[in-house]
Amino acid sequence: MQIVTDTNFSEILASSKVVVVDFWAPWCGPCRVLGPTVDDVAEEFAGRVTVAKCNVDDCEVIGEQFGIRSIPTLLFFQNGEVADKCIGLVSKAEIESKINKLL
To answer: In this structure, are residues 98 and 86 in contact, taking their beta carbons and an 8 Å threshold?
Structure first.
């Protein structure tokens, strides 16, 4: 699991793998509920998918750049471009399905 910062975000997106970014905040209840699910997905797809967490309080510019208005939001990137997204509390199966479509 990688932690997104303003300085490493472009490097994370440059990955040849599918990249899943979890936009969250520590004060967000649904984000805290989704967190362990994202961790499980990161373990399950280790080596095939890059999973990163972006605290919207620490990376406001990145959140604005991608129009993050609600959290939690998961953005799925392929070749550096947004290929899919999930907004709100979603199931592990839904996240896995979106990843599998991009692999």
So the answer is: yes
Residue 30 lies in a domain: yes
Q: Where in the sequence numbering do the catalytic residues fall? A: 28, 31
Instruction: Tell me: pLDDT of 2 over 90.
Output: no
- Asked if residues 23 and 71 have their Cβ atoms less than 8 Å apart, the reply is yes
Tens digits of per-residue pLDDT, 14-35?
988 999 999 999 999 999 999 9
User: Which pLDDT score is estimated for 6?
Assistant: 84
Q: Do residues 20 and 49 make contact, with C-beta atoms less than 8 angstroms apart?
A: yes
* CATH classification of the domain holding 12: 3.40.30.10
